[in-house]
Amino acid sequence: MLIATWNVNSVSARLPRLLEFLEAVSPDVLCLQETKVTQDTFPRMDVEAAGYRVVDHSGGRWAGVALLVREGLPVEDVAIGLPGEPLPDEARWIEATVSGIRVASVYVINGRTLDDPMFAHKLVFLEAMRRHIAAHAAAHPDIPLVICGDYNIAPADIDVYDPRAWTGTTHTSPEERGLLSGMLEAGMVDAYRHLSPETVQYTWWDYRGGAFHKNEGLRIDLILTSRSLAPRLRSCAIARDFRKGAKPSDHVPLLLEITDA
Prior knowledge:
Oligomer: single chain
Strand content: 25-35%
Structural class: alpha+beta
């Protein structure tokens, strides 16, 4: 199975690039974040014409997540919203079982600054994720879990172009990294880092200041998988070229290939 994740930073603005990606890569599941549309304005017909079923949690102008599932694959037990999350109206979590794997698309709260109320909400959201992972493992030990999305956390200094520049900011704080580590301790694996322990590569670059051309980026788009899937992880690749060309998102897709059981 090929699972991809991409913060598209508006599915409407990025629709040509999205359709390009679906045609070129043909993932079985594509998890989207920051769709920034309502239920009624999601470009459903265009995506369906490309051969994908849309399962979305759309909140309007901000946030929004979706699963695009290749036609013919079974989609079961769709669940919208993360139990225990703050600000549930912001549409940051959706999950479903696809071909026996539980797949979630998540857009973690940014947090803004360490003294902003949104940072406290971010920590609550991350703790809710950790609890949900533990609950899933206890209730469904035979169903692997894959959580894809924009975590708004760079897991370690290797994932930051200049760690000193990010000291005292969100995305790299001990609190955020500690909660992410708690997810790994609850039975998850950072797929990219599992397969590429020392590779320096990023998934996000600021639009400003020529950050992409200077390669001043962060690895904040992650795919966490149940530890039981680790032997089946074949490749996890960052599609850097999708940051080039016309109207790119500031994030790029991340692709995970999982071999059959």
